[in-house]
Automatic annotation (TrEMBL):
It comes from the Bacteria. It comes from Thalassospira lohafexi. InterPro entries: ApeP-like_dehydratase, HotDog_dom_sf. This is 3-hydroxydecanoyl-ACP dehydratase.
Length: 170
C-alpha cells in the first residue's frame, strides 16, 4: 500500500467500485465518509445478510470481515482519489492479535457503523484499527494486519494451484 495524493471526492463511490468482492461475499452496504487516514462504512443486518442465522442474526465474529472489507474500501477510495479510473485491487487479511466483542450477535434490523483507521503502513503491509458500533456502543474492536501486493497479476499467477480442494470440482 502506498500513500497517494488525493483529489477531493464529493460523493462516495458505490462499494462495488471500491472492494474487489462480489455478491454474496460483498458484505458491507456503503461507504459514508473517508479521509486520508480513516473510513466509515455501514451495514444493516437483514435476514438476507450473509452468515445470518434464524432467531439470532449474524455472529459478531463476522465483524473481523466487516472491518477487513472497510479497509479494502479505504484502499479503493484512496486509489480513486488519486485516479478516478482506478479499479479495486486484491488484498489479504493476515490476522489480528486482539479482537474484543461485547455481544455474540449482530441483531436483525441493526444498522452498524464500521470505522477503520490507518495506524501503520510500510509498502505492501498495513495495520488498521477497526471498530463496529451500534450507535455509541462499540460491539467489536480489533487491530488487523493486511497485505496488498504491488503486482496483483504476479501474485495471483503464483498462488494458483491445481490442488486447491476448495475450488476444484470433484
Amino acid at each position: 500500500m502506498t500513500k497517494a495524493s488525493h483529489t477531493q471526492i464529493t460523493t462516495m463511490p458505490a462499494i462495488a467500485e471500491l472492494v474487489l468482492h462480489a455478491a454474496p461475499m460483498l458484505l458491507i452496504d456503503r461507504v459514508c465518509d473517508a479521509g486520508p487516514d480513516h473510513l466509515r462504512a455501514e451495514i444493516t443486518i437483514q435476514q438476507t445478510s450473509m452468515f445470518f442465522e434464524k432467531d439470532h442474526g449474524v455472529p459478531a465474529y463476522v465483524g473481523i470481515e466487516y472491518i477487513a472489507q472497510a479497509v479494502a474500501a479505504y484502499g479503493g477510495w484512496r486509489a480513486k482519489s488519486a485516479d478516478p479510473a482506478a479499479a479495486p485491487r486484491i488484498g489479504y487479511l493476515l490476522g489480528t492479535r486482539k479482537m474484543t466483542m461485547t455481544r455474540d450477535w449482530f441483531e436483525p434490523g441493526t444498522r452498524l457503523n464500521i470505522y477503520v483507521e490507518n495506524v501503520f503502513e510500510d509498502g505492501e503491509m498495513g495495520v488498521f484499527k477497526g471498530e463496529i458500533r451500534d450507535g455509541n456502543d462499540v460491539i467489536v474492536a480489533a487491530q488487523i494486519n493486511v497485505f496488498q501486493p504491488g503486482d496483483t497479476d504476479a501474485t495471483l499467477a503464483t498462488s494458483h494451484t491445481t490442488h486447491n480442494q476448495e475450488t476444484t470440482t470433484p
